[in-house]
Specification:
By secondary structure, the chain is an all-alpha fold. It is 42% helix and 0% strand. The relative contact order is 0.22.
């Protein structure tokens, strides 16, 4: 099976995780948001940065909404 993410995208995530562990990672545009509080959030930031650079990263998962029931 082929790799889902490129090695360079993995490095971007790794870099962001290191920043998170040191307590330096911040969210928002230009890092002007609040402090990153979870591992998942840090990974998401790393992946979005990799996407912006045009690296091989799958598209964001679409949110699944509940269907309205007909009466």
């Amino acid at each position: 099976m082929a790799r889902r993410y490129s090695k360079s995208a993995s490095r971007d995530v790794e870099r962001e995780m290191r920043r998170y562990k040191k307590g330096k990672a911040r969210s928002g545009k230009g890092g002007k948001g609040g402090k990153v509080k979870s591992r998942k959030q840090a990974i998401a930031i790393g992946l979005s940065e990799a996407r912006k650079k045009g690296k091989k990263v799958p598209k964001k998962a679409k949110k699944k909404g509940r269907k309205k029931r007909k009466r």
